[in-house]
Amino acid sequence: PNNSNALWWEVIESFSHEQRSQVLKFVTGRSRLPVAFKVEWQPDSDRLPRAATCFQKIYLPRYPSFSKMREKMLVAIQCMSIVTD
Fold this sequence. Notes:
By secondary structure, the chain is an alpha+beta fold. It has helices at 4-14, 17-28, 66-79; strands at 38-42, 50-52, 57-61. A 3-stranded mixed sheet has the order 1-3-2, with helices on one face. Strand 2 and strand 3 (57-61) form a beta hairpin. Helix 1 (4-14) packs across helix 3 (66-79). The protein is globular and about 30 Å long.
């Protein structure tokens, strides 16, 4: 059984309020909650997550562990440069 969804929610719950806001901004280009956004799972890799803000979608590799997913998400949200608000 795949536990990627469970890891995703563990990582999100481990983030501070500010980090959660950065995740929203990474995925949607906005810091406020949109109607919805979609997680599209990709094969496991060392790549960072990607986002398509126009479709409010995150392309997230199926990382094998909580620590790897959390590390990759933090790098992705801290390095983004999109400002739309």
